[in-house]
Write a structure and sequence with these properties.
3 helices, about 60% helix
């Protein structure tokens, strides 16, 4: 289990450093001696996770607020 976490942390650290340096994934991978295709794969995963975390938000419902709610999504879906 920790091996999987270590691998995740390893690639996330490289991905963050690449972004911070403003390099392309290919440039960074070549500079660091990493496999370009593997870095691309991890980049795709991290971008997807980043997008999902910006979409989902925790909502706390207070008991004193009326119990009727309406959520409107950008695609037109309405949840009541």
């Amino acid at each position: 289990m920790s091996n999987e976490r270590d691998r995740l942390k390893f690639w996330e650290t490289h991905w963050q450093r690449c972004r911070k340096l403003g390099m392309t994934l290919k440039e960074y991978a070549e500079k660091e001696g990493l496999t370009v295709s593997v870095l691309y794969g991890w980049s795709k995963r991290f971008k997807r996770e980043e997008a999902m975390s910006s979409i989902l938000s925790r909502v706390t419902v207070l008991p004193s607020v009326p119990t009727q709610y309406r959520l409107c999504f950008p695609n037109g879906l309405v949840l009541e």
